[in-house]
């Protein structure tokens, strides 16, 4: 027991602990039915669902089981998404095969048919002329507790090994740890991190220690490493996290990789599409001038 | 460590950072590029125009503002903060004129703006202004001036500088190309500003706004046609210079 300055007597914490204390703690820990219901409601709300937007029906199996592919390209974050939209998606006709619907404290995905660059979404496409190429554009934030669900719904519990995964994402340059002076860094710049099974040479230098990857890109890469899938992550360090032309163009070296080379058709047209995306995005906000 | 010391403006971190001020400097990078050049008899301000929505009146989105007849300012960062700073600076210019019967010097008004910004880094319950400004003008002695202020409240005089998005690229260009020849006359200084902006502005002349002040003359804003003319001239000169270079190497 201990007494506070104001004369109230409080229980002093005891490291030894006693049986009585343990029982009392357990009672406190035991959930009430209301707590259980709230927890279940929250779990249901945070469930990641894969569905087809047109029919609003849920996919019964994982995405890559329903649409097996040899190339899977994932863009996470608005700059990576803009890069794929401008340089890859104009190369042919892409058919939407599903979208992920999720909710967390940071974002709520929309499932309207016309998506604007400022909205949060996670949509999957395959190339109509070669359905073995699947692409994912994910501009929403997938929380830690939802990442494994996302992976299961997309890859399945026993993924095929003959798929090559390419992940594109961005991170703020303040997260980049280096012994050089930060003023000497020419942002934006690209770094790569790959799984053991990825044999090709990467399009840029590898990410040095002690830098680490976070969030969904890290989850996908770890999953691929565990399941021995060939995967590479291209991480663009930038000082402008919002949609930015120079950051998007920093991904251009990736166009020479084997996964993407065959998908690039018309670069001047891509640059025009990118400029349009930028203008649409800039117009939305009047906060900065 | 940052998360413990970055919420309150009045708290230093153990390694001496004022994180809110540093975050305010990040807000400046979200604004479009501004370049300022100090010539021999001219000062030039060039900005990358922000795209406006179809139904929005373009005139309400202005990055270059006159503080007085002989001083003008361009900013990058939070629009609303800029409006407040500009308004206070304009009032101070008039107040100074009424009190001492002389117009402000460029350095005086820069120091006023910088002091205002510094006060907001040391008050509880406030946040720093999220803008950097380039202030140009001529003093009574006829010498052209260019100053830059930032959210921390510091100010420095420059021969040429850039702020806002991609400022580093433009600064590197200016370091290489700001020579005595480049500012030999007024039109060369204007072309230098345009060339610097074209390093980062993608869509050419239609997204550029230009303003100049010449000695004993008021602020002149270039019209879209004049800017297009200048951009075309600059483009032609660049092509000719490249042709000469390729002839030499051949």
Automatic annotation (TrEMBL), chain A:
Function in brief: Chaperone protein which promotes assembly of the 20S proteasome as part of a heterodimer with PSMG2. The PSMG1-PSMG2 heterodimer binds to the PSMA5 and PSMA7 proteasome subunits, promotes assembly of the proteasome alpha subunits into the heteroheptameric alpha ring and prevents alpha ring dimerization.
Gene symbol of the encoding locus: PSMG1
Native species: Balaenoptera acutorostrata (Common minke whale)
GO cellular component: endoplasmic reticulum; proteasome complex
InterPro entries referenced in this protein's UniProt entry, alphabetically: Proteasome_assmbl_chp_1
Taxonomic path: Eukaryota, Metazoa, Chordata, Craniata, Vertebrata
Designated name of the protein: Proteasome assembly chaperone 1
Record note on quaternary structure: Forms a heterodimer with PSMG2. The PSMG1-PSMG2 heterodimer interacts directly with the PSMA5 and PSMA7 proteasome alpha subunits.
Family (UniProt): Belongs to the PSMG1 family.
Subcellular location, principal: cytoplasm
Cellular localization per UniProt: Cytoplasm
Pfam families per record: PAC1 (PF16094)
Keyword hit for Zinc-finger: no
TrEMBL record, chain B:
Protein source organism: Balaenoptera acutorostrata (Common minke whale)
Quaternary structure (record): The 26S proteasome consists of a 20S proteasome core and two 19S regulatory subunits.
A Gene Ontology BP annotation from the UniProt entry: ubiquitin-dependent protein catabolic process
Pfam families assigned: Proteasome (PF00227), Proteasome_A_N (PF10584)
Domain of life: Eukaryota
Subcellular location as annotated: Cytoplasm; Nucleus
Coarse class of the protein's main subcellular location: cytoplasm
Family: Belongs to the peptidase T1A family.
PANTHER family, per database record: PROTEASOME SUBUNIT ALPHA/BETA
Residue stretches making up the Proteasome alpha-type subunits domain: 5-27
Name the record gives this protein: Proteasome subunit alpha type
InterPro entries found in the cross-reference section: Ntn_hydrolases_N (IPR029055), Proteasome_alpha (IPR050115), Proteasome_alpha-type (IPR023332), Proteasome_asu_N (IPR000426), Proteasome_sua/b (IPR001353)
Source organism phylogeny: Eukaryota, Metazoa, Chordata, Craniata, Vertebrata
């Amino acid at each position: 027991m201990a007494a506070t300055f104001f004369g109230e007597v409080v229980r002093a914490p005891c490291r030894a602990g006693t049986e009585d204390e343990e029982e009392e703690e357990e009672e406190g820990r035991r959930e009430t039915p209301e707590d259980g219901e709230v927890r279940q409601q929250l779990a249901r709300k945070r469930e990641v669902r894969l569905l087809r937007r047109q029919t609003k029906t849920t996919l019964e199996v994982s995405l890559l089981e329903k649409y097996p592919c040899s190339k899977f390209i994932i863009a996470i974050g608005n700059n990576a998404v803009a890069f794929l939209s401008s340089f890859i998606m104009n190369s042919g006709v892409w058919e939407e095969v599903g979208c992920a619907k999720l909710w967390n404290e940071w974002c709520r995905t929309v499932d309207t048919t016309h998506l604007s660059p400022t909205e949060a979404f996670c949509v999957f496409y395959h190339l109509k002329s070669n359905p073995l190429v699947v692409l994912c554009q994910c501009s929403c934030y997938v929380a830690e507790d939802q990442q494994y669900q996302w992976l299961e719904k997309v890859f399945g519990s026993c993924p095929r090994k003959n798929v090559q995964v390419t992940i594109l994402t961005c991170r703020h340059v303040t997260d980049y740890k280096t012994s050089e002076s930060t003023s000497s860094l020419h942002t934006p710049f690209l770094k790569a991190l790959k799984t053991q099974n990825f044999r090709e040479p990467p399009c840029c230098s590898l990410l040095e220690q002690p830098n680490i990857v976070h969030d969904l890109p890290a989850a996908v890469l770890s999953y691929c490493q565990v399941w021995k899938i060939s995967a590479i992550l291209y991480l663009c360090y930038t000082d402008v996290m919002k949609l930015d032309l120079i950051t998007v163009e920093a991904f251009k070296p990736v166009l020479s990789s084997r996964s993407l080379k065959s998908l690039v058709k018309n670069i001047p047209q891509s640059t025009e599409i990118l400029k349009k995306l930028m203008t649409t995005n800039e117009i939305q906000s009047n906060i900065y001038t | 460590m940052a998360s413990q010391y970055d919420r309150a403006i009045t708290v230093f971190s153990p390694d001496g950072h004022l994180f809110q001020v540093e975050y305010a400097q990040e807000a400046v990078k979200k604004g479009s590029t501004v370049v300022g050049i100090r010539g021999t008899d001219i000062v030039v301000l060039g900005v990358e125009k922000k795209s406006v929505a179809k139904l929005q009146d373009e005139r309400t989105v202005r990055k270059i503002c006159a503080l007085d007849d002989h001083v003008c300012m361009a900013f990058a960062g939070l629009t609303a903060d800029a409006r407040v700073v500009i308004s206070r600076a304009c009032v101070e210019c008039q107040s100074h004129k009424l009190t001492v019967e002389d117009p402000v010097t460029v350095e005086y008004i820069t120091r006023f703006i910088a002091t205002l910004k510094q006060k907001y880094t040391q008050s509880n319950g406030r946040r720093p202004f999220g803008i950097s400004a380039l202030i140009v003008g001529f003093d009574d002695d006829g010498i052209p001036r260019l100053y830059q202020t930032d959210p921390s409240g510091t100010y420095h005089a420059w021969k040429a500088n850039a702020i806002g998005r991609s400022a580093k690229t433009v600064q590197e260009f200016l370091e290489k190309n700001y020579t005595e020849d480049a500012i030999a006359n007024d039109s060369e200084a204007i072309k230098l500003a345009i060339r610097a902006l074209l390093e980062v502005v993608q869509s050419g002349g239609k997204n550029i706004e230009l303003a100049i002040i010449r000695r004993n003359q008021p602020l002149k804003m270039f019209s879209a046609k004049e800017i297009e003319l200048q951009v075309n001239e600059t483009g032609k000169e660049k092509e000719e210079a490249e042709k000469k270079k390729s002839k030499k190497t051949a």
